[in-house]
Amino acid sequence: MAPNLSNLTVLDQSPTFIYSPYREGDLNIILETSGTSLHSTTLQGASLQISFMGTAIYLAGSGTAGGYSTTLDGGDAVDGNPANGYLVSHDGLDYEAHTLVLNTTSTSQLNVTSALMTVGIGDEGATITDTIHLAIDVTSDGSASLDPFFTTNGNGPFNTNHDAQGYSRIDTTGAGSKISFSFSSASAVFVYGSTNYDHDAYSVTLSPAAGVSTSTRTFNSTSKWFAYNTSTYWETGLDRDKTYQVTFENLAEGKYFDIHQVLLRDGVPASASSPSSSATSGTTSSDSSSPSSDRTLSTGAIIGVTVGVVAAILAAFFFLFLWCRQRRKNKTRYNATLLTDLRDPA
Description:
The chain is mainly beta. It has 2 domains: about 5-270, Galactose-binding domain-like (Jelly Rolls, Sandwich); about 305-340. The chain is about 10% helix and about 40% strand. The protein is built from 2 helices and 23 strands. Strand 14 (about 160) and strand 15 (about 170) form a beta hairpin. Helix 1 packs antiparallel against helix 2 (about 330-340). The longest helix is centred in the C-terminal third of the chain and has 31 residues, at about 300-330. Keywords: Membrane, Transmembrane, Transmembrane helix.
């Protein structure tokens, strides 16, 4: 049966982007505390690669025509020709495992921001449902403990941190220390954690093998700044009738690896979906801090929205009447209030 196709966006900050000869170069610019994620290089011979199971990939960024080349699945190199905000795009591919590699061939600047891929979540016509497992259970008094969905193995140490921003996580700094979990009834798995200057290499093993995870894979979560809720591992095209185990191993002594949460996305077959299901088909997953599915409104909610809209229209006419009266009395004061109300919230 044909796959249920869904779009997946992964930011350049994700360790599933593999950069060479190193993930982060010397810091020669001032970084802001927020903004668009970006990897940039002027190094000739630098490269990146990303693998996925699907039918299309669009690599977003900017560069100079002829300043880089790309290959797909080990094929012939194609000279770069950026267009419409993409460095390269491939669609209409066979539904199978693919690897895109980009190599810089000059010292002209090249920027990468994200990859948009079309992947499979269950079979065609499936209904998408999400289940989220936070790594840490935090009680009302602030104490934290590892959620039983996860297990640890090795000498550790393993820490359960919960900072002021509410970003809970299980982390370890011991080489050889492992964090794992098992699941079933899921067509895709997305794991979210942190990247930072004090993070390093880790490996991921999916058993049984599936998608592009046919063997143990190695990633690097080094970053020049602390990035929350980054996609540290994901795999699609899973068999929802199988039970899988995902095992992470920290490979660098004294360097951090952590997990914040796991999102299991299931493509429930049409024959098994109930009419009252709140999830919708064709949902997109991304690196957002709160991954979720689109939801449908119940009849009661629709009625409530309709009543609310009517009330809002009546209220608008009422306030328009008051505004006209007030404007005649004190036009200057109203204009000052209007400008204040239209400003973006702090």
